[in-house]
Write a structure and sequence with these properties.
The chain has 304 residues and is an alpha/beta fold. 19% of the residues lie in helices and 24% in strands. It starts with 7 loop residues before the first helix and ends in a 9-residue tail after the last helix.
């Protein structure tokens, strides 16, 4: 199960802050226990390497040395970028970039307008350094998390999806738990397998087409790993259940996700490759310009 929490006994105490050595030990054990699943391919070790690797994009083809400010790992060769006009904007422009490792980012020519959080954006928890200036993402604030995040897997309603990304078909029992008090917070799981009080109150069914008031926005989607690392949520109350999914037909903005047209999301799913270690970057335009040099971000094309 995608984003499956740890064993029940561990889930009850997963929000306790552990010494670094124990965290690493448990992460290693988790790798070994799940080595026959796709999560082994995209779990703790790649996540750790993402945090340690340096950025290779530069004005010259030579790989740049690692510094505290280079946040895009050298192994990442696909980057999805969304730029909003301001922290308060509820929409943005999406771009797709690719590169050969050690060379400059190249725009692939695909761009479209996307919907964001109904209340704009706020700094989330991802691969980027913590930012103290600007709003901070909180559960239920209606803001999309800004920053740099892994795109770990795809999900949807159909048995298969045209994508190279790891994929899971969702059922009527699959929920993303958005209740901060739950030990399963920010986990996507089959609620039949866990204590009812741990999943009670969650308002995020992964098969919204089967609900009393159905819609098809989760017919296909991607997990954005906000507040999520090494197989478990990172901080209670810092925001949960962040996806890329389809736009609402009635034009409603999202509760914090990024929503695309069916044509663009289908094309994006076909383009992404797990071997490219794809990342998602969301920033207001002013923050993009402020961080462009330090984070070695690509030159944005002119939208015609």
């Amino acid at each position: 199960m995608m984003r499956r929490p740890k064993q029940l006994a561990k889930s009850a105490v997963k929000s306790i802050i552990l010494p670094l050595g124990l965290v690493l030990e448990r992460a290693t054990n988790r790798q070994l226990e799940n080595k026959n699943t796709w999560r082994w391919l995209t779990g703790v070790l790649p996540g750790s390497l993402l945090l340690l690797a340096g950025c290779s994009q530069s004005m010259q083809p030579a790989i740049q040395p690692v510094t505290a400010e280079t946040v895009i790992p050298a192994g990442t060769t696909q980057l999805v970028v969304v730029i909003s006009d301001s922290w308060d904007a509820s929409s943005g422009q999406l771009y797709q970039f690719s590169r050969v490792a050690g060379q400059r980012w190249q725009d692939n020519g695909q761009t479209s307008q996307v919907d964001l959080g109904r209340n704009g954006t706020a700094w989330g928890l991802g691969l980027h350094p913590a930012q103290s200036e600007g709003p901070q993402k909180q559960e239920g604030d209606g803001k999309a998390p800004a920053g740099l995040f892994r795109l770990s897997a795809a999900f949807g309603a159909l048995p298969t999806l045209a994508t190279q990304m790891p994929y899971q078909q969702m059922s009527r029992f699959d929920y993303c738990i958005d209740v901060p008090a739950s030990p399963l917070y920010n986990q996507t799981l089959d609620i039949r397998q866990y204590r009812s009080e741990w999943t009670a109150g969650s308002s995020e069914p992964m098969r919204r087409d089967l609900m009393a008031k159905p819609d098809a926005v989760y017919e296909q989607g991607l997990f954005i790993d906000h507040n999520f690392s090494s197989g478990e949520a990172r901080q209670t109350g810092a925001g949960s259940c962040i996806f890329m999914h389809l736009k609402s037909p009635d034009g409603r903005k999202t509760a914090g996700c990024t929503a695309l047209t069916p044509e663009h999301l289908t094309a994006l799913l076909q383009w992404l490759s797990p071997q490219a270690e794809p990342l998602y970057l969301l920033l207001p335009a002013s923050e993009y310009q402020r961080l462009k040099q330090d984070w070695q971000l690509p030159q944005l094309p002119t939208v015609r």
